[in-house]
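Contributing new records

If you add data, match the layout below exactly. Sequence lines come first and carry their own label; structure lines follow with theirs. Keep one chain per record. Anything else will be rejected by the validation script.
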Amino acid sequence: MAVWKNETVQNVGSRAKSNLGDFQKFILRGNVVDLAVGIMIGAAFSGVVTALVGDVITPLIPIGKDDLSGGTVHLGTFINTIITFLILAFVIYFFIIKPVNALMALHKPKAAEAPTTRDCPYCLSTIPLHATRCAYCTAQLPPADQDQTSPAPAQRA
């Protein structure tokens, strides 16, 4: 059983997890999904354009000695192609776009919330953000939106 003591065989699980993690990052970047959806929608839309030209527009063009009475417009085929396109777009949106967006939202870092407290520049106690006087040392405080790097000594009460 020298195979099990081989270092390459023993580290297979960690390497597989690493590769799967890299694959997950690659997929969740969004570029891959956007490209795949673009290709599918593009192919379906090219079918709609082909059906429009072949079934609706081309029969209206008189060729040679024929007049417009000989051409038949195939609206049913064209409408069928549009319905197929809409079904494909529906499936792509609800079965690919929505789940991938939910996965990306799970892995997106949370936005930092705005602070609700600040430190008194004199006694370093935690006070509410919009307080104008410190509850601990009773110092007059500058407004919260001003720079608080150095307290003015004349403001000390």
